[in-house]
């Protein structure tokens, strides 16, 4: 990929507009996890350290365009950002009527971009209005790179200079390393509740990987394709044929989709449900498969230990319930201990990484959910494509 990088730009005396992803969660009115804000600091600090003024813009929640409600206000985010930077960060509510003029070293934040009419439809006029605020536009929001919106795509077309921020550039470099020229064997873990939501990813990865590990409801559908009984476990019966094709395609290239030989089952879906380890051939009609068994986890751990590159998206069991977290924990620790270059992405995956204390041992943790998945599919990310066009 050829695109300009912020760290290659002279920003002295310039106003830099940074599209960050500071869409943080709240609990009881307070920010409950500031990971995304902290991940955005590198680009902001680069600009401040090099004599620029900075305007940050981000979305927050899912507001209705043209309507402002108190829960949509980015003021708490701006205040937290200010505390991390050690300076005030004002929220600009009337930036279209009164173009902000900032001195070098000052930071401000636009009000929630998704309140602006035309944001989601990638409105040209709105993109031009964003671009008029700056000398340099920086996209540092990998989590929204798969969306062509006014604050991610249109603005990049009209800004005097458009480049990738530190976080976005790092994401693209890491993903490129994992998929474009990976150390072999390349092992991918794709897990989740439904094959349908990740079918195109699975199909795409069969062309790239040496081993494809599936988990969760996806694995159950693949087990059905093998003719196994899965009781009342979550699965998609209408996608058994597609699952067979994926396994056949992997087999034709000498690869494999390893499925569990033992599983952890329960009669109900609950944290306090009794967990029982069974051979896959012993699953009863009223059993629900909620995790892979210890034997299966050990087999997968060996494969991960021998990998050159690991791409991980999705836990292999209901890890939120401790009784059904064992499989995901074994895999998480195997990835952490492997010498392979590992990259992980997706909200549940990051939650599992945090739960099992292996955050520091994963080579790269992607901040993107949908963008991470679409990159794995081989799709063009609109907000990245425009940066390549401007390079």
From TrEMBL:
Family the UniProt entry places it in: Belongs to the phosphoglycerate kinase family.
Compartment list: Cytoplasm
Keyword ATP-binding (UniProt): yes
Chain residues that bind substrate: 21-23, 36, 59-62, 114, 147
Protein's recorded name: Phosphoglycerate kinase
Positions that bind ATP: 198, 320, 346-349
Assembly description: Monomer.
Pfam families documented for this protein: PGK
Kinase among keywords: yes
Highest rank taxon of the organism: Bacteria
Metabolic or biological pathway: Carbohydrate degradation; glycolysis; pyruvate from D-glyceraldehyde 3-phosphate: step 2/5
Gene3D superfamilies, alphabetized: Phosphoglycerate kinase, N-terminal domain
Example of a GO MF term: kinase activity
Keywords: ATP-binding, Cytoplasm, Glycolysis, Kinase, Nucleotide-binding, Transferase
Catalytic activity: (2R)-3-phosphoglycerate + ATP = (2R)-3-phospho-glyceroyl phosphate + ADP
Signal sequence coordinates: none
EC nos: 2.7.2.3
Enzyme class: transferase
């Amino acid at each position: 990929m050829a695109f300009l990088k912020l760290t290659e730009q002279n920003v002295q005396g310039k106003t830099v507009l940074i599209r960050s992803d500071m869409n943080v969660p709240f609990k009881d009115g307070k920010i409950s996890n500031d990971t995304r804000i902290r991940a955005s600091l590198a680009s902001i600090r680069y600009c401040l350290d090099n004599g620029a003024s900075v305007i940050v813009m981000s979305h927050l929640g899912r507001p209705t365009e043209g309507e402002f409600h108190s829960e949509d206000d980015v003021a708490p985010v701006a205040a937290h950002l200010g505390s991390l930077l050690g300076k005030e960060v004002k929220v600009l509510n009337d930036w279209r009527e009164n173009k902000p003029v900032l001195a070098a070293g000052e930071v401000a934040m636009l009000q929630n971009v998704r309140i602006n009419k035309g944001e989601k439809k990638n409105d040209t006029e709105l993109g031009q209005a964003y671009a008029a605020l700056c000398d340099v536009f920086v996209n540092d929001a990998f989590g929204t790179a798969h969306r062509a919106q006014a604050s991610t795509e249109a603005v990049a077309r009209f800004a005097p200079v458009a480049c990738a921020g530190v976080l976005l550039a790092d994401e693209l470099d890491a993903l490129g390393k994992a998929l474009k020229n990976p150390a072999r064997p390349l092992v991918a873990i794709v897990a989740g509740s439904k094959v349908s939501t990740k079918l195109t990813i699975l199909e795409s990865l069969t062309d790239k990987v040496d081993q494809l590990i599936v988990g969760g409801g996806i694995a159950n559908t693949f087990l059905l394709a093998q003719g196994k009984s899965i009781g009342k476990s979550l699965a998609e019966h209408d996608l058994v044929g597609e699952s067979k094709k994926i396994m056949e395609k992997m087999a034709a290239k000498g690869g494999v989709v390893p499925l569990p030989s033992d599983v952890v089952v329960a009669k109900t879906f609950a944290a306090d449900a009794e967990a029982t380890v069974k051979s896959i051939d012993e699953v009863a009609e009223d059993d629900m498969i909620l995790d892979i068994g210890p034997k299966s986890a050990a087999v997968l751990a060996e494969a991960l230990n021998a990998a050159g590159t690991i791409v991980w998206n999705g836990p292999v069991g209901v890890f939120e319930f401790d009784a059904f977290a064992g499989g995901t924990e074994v895999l998480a620790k195997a990835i952490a201990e492997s010498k392979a270059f590992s990259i992980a992405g997706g909200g549940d995956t990051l939650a599992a990484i945090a739960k099992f204390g292996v955050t520091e041992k994963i080579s790269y943790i992607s901040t993107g959910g949908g963008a991470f998945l679409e990159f794995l599919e081989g799709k063009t990310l609109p907000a990245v494509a425009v940066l390549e066009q401007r390079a």
